[in-house]
Write a structure and sequence with these properties.
By secondary structure, this protein is α+β, with helices and mostly antiparallel strands. The protein contains ten helices and twelve strands. α6 packs across α9 and α9 crosses α10. The relative contact order is 0.15.
Length: 303
């Protein structure tokens, strides 16, 4: 029997420079929003719910890393998010099935019920592979874009003047508000103060990215914005307290977030929204966002 030239093993700190090159290559060929700078990748690997020793595998061929699979546990909603990528010349050699076995074992030990994988809709190869491995497409998310030069600057500025930025020490409040805002939404894993602090402290983010709507002294909603490594604006998340919905707060927060990004030099803004969130989709369309592509979530039960 011929011995396989491939070795699947746990990630080691010494792999970092090689892993960065492969990670950037993966995002360039099959984009799903991975970080693409060494610092941002290092920060991703330091996520408080992620263990590089247990949740990140690399695939070697004669000592060269040619693939990886990382597994982010989100156990409050009983799932593990999987990102797996192999250089094209090493595909169709049985590695997909082997990597799936590793992830199934890891997810089973954690007590997860599902594996979830996110791919662009136009990545037909990945969709076919996932289908053959027993995954089903369960959700579609829309990637939308807005040309800020066509937006109503005065309306944006008026909304921004009625909001304020997150202040130091408000991480716990924002965590509670976020969990209330997204309770029951598909794919939302309740946050912790530790995870919230981690996200705010990332090198490309700060408290000035988060715009809050208030009624007297009570925070009623937030819009989390960011400038990407390419200089584009992105609406990372918008949420409002359940008692204040259907009162125009979502629109005000969106406009304030757009003003915040415009003030930072962004000329275009992107966001991702669940296609089944009809209220949010209608809001974004009314502001002028246009569909660019779709992202599909695939699911497989952990046996």
């Amino acid at each position: 029997m011929t011995k396989s030239p491939y070795n699947i093993r746990n990630y080691r700190p010494a792999d970092f420079n090689f892993f960065v090159l492969l990670y950037i290559e993966a995002e360039r060929q099959e984009p799903i929003g991975r970080p693409v700078t060494p610092q941002a990748i290092a920060e991703k690997l330091s996520h408080p719910d992620f263990s590089t020793e247990r949740d990140l595998l690399v695939v070697e061929e004669t000592g060269e890393i040619i693939g990886f699979v990382d597994m982010l546990p989100e156990l409050d909603i009983e799932r593990v998010i999987v990102d797996c990528w192999l250089r094209p010349e090493h595909r169709r050699k049985g590695l997909g099935g082997k990597l799936l076995n590793f992830t199934m074992k890891r997810a089973g030990k954690l007590g997860a019920r599902f594996l979830h994988v996110n791919v662009r809709e136009d990545n037909a190869v990945a969709g076919n592979v996932l289908s053959k491995l027993g995954f089903d497409c369960v959700r579609r998310f829309l990637e939308l874009r807005l040309d800020l030069n066509k937006a109503d600057r005065q309306e944006m500025d008026r909304a921004f003047c009625k909001c304020r930025h997150l202040r130091e020490g408000e991480e716990e409040m924002l965590t509670q508000l976020q969990n209330l805002s997204f309770a029951g939404h598909w794919g939302y894993n309740p946050n912790t103060v530790e995870a919230m602090s981690y996200h705010i402290s990332l090198s490309h983010r700060s408290s000035k990215d988060i715009v809050l709507a208030c009624e007297e002294d009570e925070v009623t909603g937030y819009c989390w914005t960011e400038i990407t490594s390419g200089g584009q604006g992105r609406i990372f998340m918008i949420g409002s307290a359940p008692d204040y919905r259907s009162k125009g707060i979502g629109r005000k927060l969106l406009l304030a977030g757009l003003a915040n990004l415009k003030n930072k030099g962004a000329n275009e803004v992107w966001l991702t929204v669940d296609s089944e969130n009809k209220a949010a989709c209608s809001l974004y369309e009314s502001i002028g966002f246009e569909l660019q592509t779709n992202y599909l979530w695939y699911e497989k039960s952990v046996d």
